[in-house]
Amino acid sequence: MSTPRRAAPPSNDPPPWLASGAAHVWRPYCQHKGAPPPLAVVGCHGSRLVLAGGGELVDGTASWWTAAHGYRHPRLVAAIEAQLARLPHVAFGGLAHEAGYALAARIASLLPAPLARVFLVESGSVAVEVAIKMAIQSLHNRGIAKRRVVAFEGAYHGDTFATMALCDPITGMHAAFAGAGVDAVHLAIPVAGDDRFEAELDRIAGDVACVVVEPLVQCAGGFRFHDAEALWRIRRACDRHGALLVLDEIATGFFRTGERFALDEARVVPDIVVLGKALSGGMLPLAATVATDAVFDAFLADDPSKALQHGPTYMANALACAAAQASLDLFAEGDTAARVRRLEASLRAELAPLRSARGVRDVRVKGAIGVIEMDAGAAPPSSAFAARGAFIRPIRSAAADFVYVMPPLVLDDVDRAILVGAIAGCLGA
Fold it and tell me: Can you say how many angstroms the Cα of residue 330 is from the centroid of all Cα atoms in its chain?
């Protein structure tokens, strides 16, 4: 594989479609006043993005952590094309198709019992919303009036109203909406020798319907790591107080932290788990909320109002489900866990010297996640990394900046060297 040509910052002569659309597109997570134009991508392959100017960048974010198998994998493309020829989409209300039903059964087979009931949606934020609705309504249907949701300091669970309420109200990106949406309270994740979590939950447990946490790694909220014991303590506290445990594995699932799911490593079984991102291999929008039989059974009644009243228009889209089946095939056929262990070891060794770089507070690695925490405002812009052949988009908050890599799991040695080299060069290490 040849080394990609280095990309210059966005030129003053953008492609016509970028120039004509710029006055109409509202970009995500973007302060448009003063923001540079985005890099124009015209193609992709493997771990690379092909730019309009002909250069290539190694993608350090895997399109927000979705493209686990790399871009345009032929197995994924073939699965979508075959499904497109048969049935691209029909509404899931009152109708059924093989792609959706077969995928639900397969997802359930990958998870520990009694997680068995799969609700297929089109985005991670919606999947978390569904999990919250399942938790609160399952108790309501049993005559239990609990509505409060416990989340954690440093949390991020999405951008819809309920999920914004779960995000950290102080350091999170949704501080403007603190207090809106669901009734949420934020506690500290348990650490050894500190029982504040249990004490705080004991105090409010009479109102708590569920506890929501990203297992082992809180990703977009600040890339904080915690251990399996913290999750066991949360599980025991939920059991003690009759609250449901929801694990948000949208970012951590499908080998991102090492095992197939973080819950496998932690040996913790939740009442509800939320999956997404790499589920469809980064090809099409798809997420899943998976509940135990006990949660599902709480909705069984002669009263129609006790049903789960939720149904996205593109729920269980057949094309996305076909892509997911091919994605799961690829995970099953290769030793992905071993590949991630090798990537983890390389990132640990290669990022460690950056601890001494100016503005760096910490360097940490878990699975295929590498993070350099920096002083607020210290992270270089994306254009600086692009000039060195890599697409890296730091996450910035009032408290700290995070230069991170969550690349395709198929990242090879050449492309990994480009990513690490771009970071080292930009940080002056």
Answer: 19
Q: What are the sequence ranges of the domains in the chain?
A: 16-59+66-73+335-427, 87-333
Per-residue pLDDT tens for 293-309? 999 999 999 999 999 99
Tens digit of each residue's pLDDT (9 = 90 or more) over 70-79: 999 999 999 9
Instruction: Please give the model's pTM, rounded to 2 decimal places.
Output: 0.95
Is residue 67 a contact partner of residue 41, using CB atoms and an 8 Å limit? Answer: no
The whole-angstrom separation of Cα 67 and Cα 47 is 8
**How is residue 387 written in tokens?**
């000039």
For 53-102, the pLDDT digits (tens) are: 889 999 999 999 999 999 999 999 999 999 999 999 999 999 999 999 99
**Which helix or strand (DSSP H or E) is residue 288 part of?**
strand 287-292
Please, what is the Cα angle at 263 between 259 and 265, to 5 degrees?
45
First to last CA, the chain: 26
* Buried b / exposed e along 190-204 (16+ C-beta atoms within 10 A): beeeeeebbebbeee
Which tokens hold the place of 298? Answer: 């709480």
**Strand arrangement, sheet containing 395-396:** 360-366, 369-375, 400-405, 395-396
Q: Is 281 left (phi over 0), alpha (psi -120 to 50) or beta?
A: left
Fold of 87-333: Aspartate Aminotransferase; domain 2 (3.40.640)
Residue 358 phi/psi, 5° resolution? -60, 130
Token pair belonging to 22: 């710029």
Burial class (CB in 10 A: 0-12, 13-18, 19+), 16: exposed
Q: What is the mean pLDDT of the chain?
A: 94
> What is the CATH T-level fold of the domain 16-59+66-73+335-427, as seen in this structure?
Aspartate Aminotransferase, domain 1 (3.90.1150)
In sequence order, the β-bridge partners of residue 49 are 44, 57
Residues that are catalytic: 29, 156, 248, 277
